[in-house]
Amino acid sequence: MDTFGEARGEIAHSSARKTKQPPNPADELERVKQIIQELEKVDQLITNLLKELPS
């Protein structure tokens, strides 16, 4: 996720005078899908841990 944030920040905070190639939307969509998949795994792990806690 750090790389994702760095890439987005570089485009958002660059000087308008410098020409930079914006991110490819298809690549960004794939990256977001990967992030979501990994977050779902983390969410499931947390859910499982919470189920193990005594009431």
What is the topology?
Elements: H1 2-12, H2 25-52
Biased composition (Basic and acidic residues): 1-11
Region (Disordered): 1-27
Description:
Residues 1-27 are annotated as: Disordered. Residues 1-11 have a biased composition (Basic and acidic residues). The protein is mostly helical. The protein has a domain at 23-55. Helices cover 71% and strands 0% of the residues. The protein has helices spanning 2-12, 25-52. The relative contact order is 0.10.
Task: Summarize this structure as a short list of keywords or feature phrases.
mainly alpha; elongated; about 55 residues; about 0% strand
**Which structural class matches the secondary elements?**
mainly alpha
Poorly predicted regions:
none
| Total helical segments | 2
Order of helices and strands: HH
Distance between the termini: 34 Å
Helix content range of the residues, please? over 70%
Number of strands: 0
What value does the average pLDDT take?
86
Taken from the alpha-carbon principal axes, the silhouette is elongated
Give the strand content. under 5%
- Using only C-alpha atoms, the radius of gyration works out to 17 Å
For the sheet with most strands, the description reads:
none
